[in-house]
Specification:
222 residues; alpha+beta; Chitinase A, domain 3; 2 domains; seven-stranded antiparallel beta sheet; three-stranded antiparallel beta sheet; 35% strand
Length: 222
């Protein structure tokens, strides 16, 4: 049976309202969350990404000190010289944002207004459990992952989804990571289980799991 349109929201919102009412954590869970935070910090301090830009337009986005390596795709023109078709750069994040338990590495800056606390944010995403790095993909609406057949839990038409940041059922970590985003932004949002789905497992997501979202923002409406 193919998943229905509502399946995509199971992994962006807290399905069980009682999870939001859990007060405090046991010492064991606090230790788990602290370990997750340490792993997230270590990951963000060393993470890199490879991004391809047309021509030499990467120069509009990255300073030399942020570029670790680059590879150019070229072709010979009629004059016998080489034209640069594209450049793939391996880079560090442009910036890292930490707010209220959520951690965000920004790869591409957006434009326009920033998402406020009541904004409607339309986005593409892929979501993973996180240990020392992204682990198990559990939901996505990105066409490239759909085509690869590496997942089976999200809507097959891959339309962008719209999240209302003032919806109390939105996971706290994702909400805080999206605050301040702008249209066109591409980023990683990572947070411990304390700000995710809590102590009950959800589908393939273990209890207290840290979560990782790769998001590409289509639009922001305040």
């Amino acid at each position: 049976m193919k998943p229905g349109n509502t399946d995509i929201y199971r992994y962006l919102y807290i399905i069980f309202p009682l999870l939001a009412l859990i007060a405090g954590c046991s010492a064991s869970r606090e230790n788990t969350y602290n370990t997750q935070e340490d792993r997230i910090d270590k990951y963000l301090s060393s993470v890199t990404a490879s991004i391809t830009y047309p021509g030499t337009s990467y120069r509009n986005y990255w300073d030399k000190e942020d570029i670790i390596s680059m590879t150019a795709k070229t072709e010979e023109n009629a004059e016998g010289s080489l034209d640069t078709l594209s450049v793939t750069v391996t880079v560090k994040p442009r910036r890292t944002v930490r707010q209220n338990g959520s951690n965000k590495a920004v790869w591409t800056e957006g434009i326009g207004e920033e998402a406020g606390s009541r904004a409607a944010v339309t986005l593409y995403y892929e979501a993973y459990t996180f240990e020392s790095k992204p682990q198990t993909l559990f939901a996505t609406n990105m066409q490239s992952l759909v085509d690869s057949g590496s997942w089976s839990v999200t809507d097959p038409d891959c339309n962008p989804v719209t999240l209302n940041l003032d919806d109390r059922n939105l996971t706290e970590g994702l909400r805080n990571g999206l605050l301040g985003c702008r249209a066109g932004e591409e980023s990683y949002i990572v947070f411990s289980g304390k700000y995710g789905f809590g102590k009950k497992p959800l589908g393939t997501i273990p209890a207290n799991a840290a979560l990782f979202y790769h998001v590409i923002i289509e639009s922001v409406r305040n």
